[in-house]
Amino acid sequence: MVNYYANAGLVFETVLVGILAYAPFFNEPLGTRQIAFPHFAVPSFSFFAVIMAYDEVRKVFLRNGMTKSRRGRTVIHGWVARNTYY
C-alpha cells in the first residue's frame, strides 16, 4: 500500500463503479438499472477473502524461506521463495 498511484486507482475504480451502478441519471443512457446493494457487494467479498488469504499465506512461506547472510544479502531457499518472489 505504499504506491499512491495504485491506491488512487483502486479508490477511483470503486467510486466510478458505485456511481455508474447507483446514479439514476446514468441508467437511461447506459441502458442499466439500479441493483440491490447485497447483489453488488456480497459476491465480490468471497473473491476478496480468497485473494487476501492467498497473499498472506504466500508471505508467510516467503519469509520462512529467506534468510540474511553475514554480508547483508538476502539468500532465497525453498520453492515458494524461488518461484513467487518478485
Itemize the secondary structure elements and their pairings.
Elements: H1 4-22, H2 24-30, H3 37-64, E1 66-68, E2 74-76, H4 79-84
Antiparallel strand pairs: 1-2
Structural features, described:
- The structure is a single chain.
- The protein is mainly α.
- It folds into 2 domains: 1-35, no CATH class; 46-86.
- 70% of the residues lie in helices and 7% in strands.
- It contains 4 helices and 2 strands; from the N terminus they run αααββα.
- It has helices spanning 4-22, 24-30, 37-64, 79-84; strands spanning 66-68, 74-76.
- A two-stranded antiparallel ribbon has the order 1-2.
- A hairpin with a 5-residue loop joins strand 1 (66-68) and strand 2 (74-76).
- The mean pLDDT is 79.
Keywords, separated by commas or semicolons:
2 domains; about 70% helix; elongated; two-stranded antiparallel sheet; about 5% strand; single chain; mainly alpha; 2 strands; about 90 residues
